[in-house]
Amino acid sequence: MDAPLVYLDSGATSQRPESVIEAEGQFLRNSYAAVHRGAHTLAVEATDAFEEARRTVADFVGADEREIVWTSNATEAINLLTYAFSNATAGSNGSGPGSQRFRLAEGDEVLVTESEHHANLVPWQELCARTGATLRWIPVDDDGLLRLDALGDLLNERTKVLAFTHVSNVTGAVNDVATLVAAAKSAGALTVLDACQSVPHLPVDFHALGVDFAAFSGHKMLGPTGIGALYGRAELLNSLPTFLTGGSMITSVTMERTEYLPAPARFEAGTQRISQAVALAEAVRFLKDLGMDRVAAWEAELGQRLARGVAQIPGVRLVGPRPGQERVGLASVVVEGVHAHDVGQLLDVAGVAVRVGHHCAQPLHRRLGITATTRASAYVYNTTADVDRFLEELSGVRAYFRAED
């Protein structure tokens, strides 16, 4: 590649600071061992580092350390949750006191939104198929924004779960969590927040938001792949049935029956993501040193620069909030007469890395009448010059493909 790289694909996965890479390497070189199993010095050091990472990440998202369950990613976290609901319905031996609130049956409803990433849609579809519950969804308007005016007709005494994204990975819109949580509580429904696009970019406090469960991934917040987390209120996690079972999450086992540890250990069977957790904690420290208020403010500025710039390019449609409306540092666009994959390829030749396709949100794209979009997503390492470079290259796409009027 001759042109300097402008990386605008952090919505998919973020680049890692040297300190994060080094923290994982140092742990692997000096302290690596199985956790929660050995009594030797190295095992104790590894366990201490592993649990300190949990405390660091929990504090970052406004949670207690007992409320953070390590998973491979947010997708696994949401699947863990939906399969635990299934196990509650089936009367699993791993159910805790109060697990009946997770049981679903015909006549019950799960409410999602039309803007969900497949990771927060497909698992709920499958749960409804397994239990006989009905899946319903909050529609979006022509800009892809949630129609909260429809909430009153959709949320009722039959609604058991309201699952929704905090920030859309397609539109960059920040959803009104307070309104959605209040509505769910009034109906007695549990709330599940997809926080993949908010925890890396905004100050997030799960206790203050009042959500019951949340999921996020390490690789979108300067951390490694292979690590994510499920947040759950402590009393709910301890009532939730187990999902994966095996070693490290039990108190006693006989040939007839098993007793399980309290959360989070009850959901962490087998050998864990040890070095990844250590690296994620270092990523969190990096973000805390920057200050999440500053991160959010900078990315909001980049998001508005993207929105304003796109709106000025003839034949290019901005998806999501209009310029001046709240958005994170992300913008998805449609170029008239040019497929998103061709747009992305031309930008790539120019050294600008963006995302193309439906971004694992096919229903949202279908609702907006488009097959695919080109998405530029900025992060803490991006500059106004990066945004301007994207806009400059984008402005020449239609002429290159002779798609101008």
Automatic annotation (TrEMBL):
One Pfam match: Aminotran_5
Cofactor dependence: pyridoxal 5'-phosphate
GO molecular function: cysteine desulfurase activity; pyridoxal phosphate binding
Catalytic activity of the protein: (sulfur carrier)-H + L-cysteine = (sulfur carrier)-SH + L-alanine
InterPro entries: Aminotrans_V_dom (IPR000192), Aminotrans_V_PyrdxlP_BS (IPR020578), Cys_dSase_SufS (IPR010970), PyrdxlP-dep_Trfase (IPR015424), PyrdxlP-dep_Trfase_major (IPR015421), PyrdxlP-dep_Trfase_small (IPR015422)
Aminotransferase class V domain ranges (all copies): 6-390
Keywords, in A-Z order: Pyridoxal phosphate, Transferase
Keyword Transferase in record: yes
E.C. designation(s): 2.8.1.7
Keyword flag Transferase: yes
Top-level EC class as recorded in UniProt: transferase
An individual GO BP term: cysteine metabolic process
Top-level taxon of origin: Bacteria
UniProt family annotation: Belongs to the class-V pyridoxal-phosphate-dependent aminotransferase family. Csd subfamily.
UniProt-listed PANTHER family: CYSTEINE DESULFURASE (PTHR43586), CYSTEINE DESULFURASE 1, CHLOROPLASTIC (PTHR43586:SF8)
Protein name stated in the entry: Cysteine desulfurase
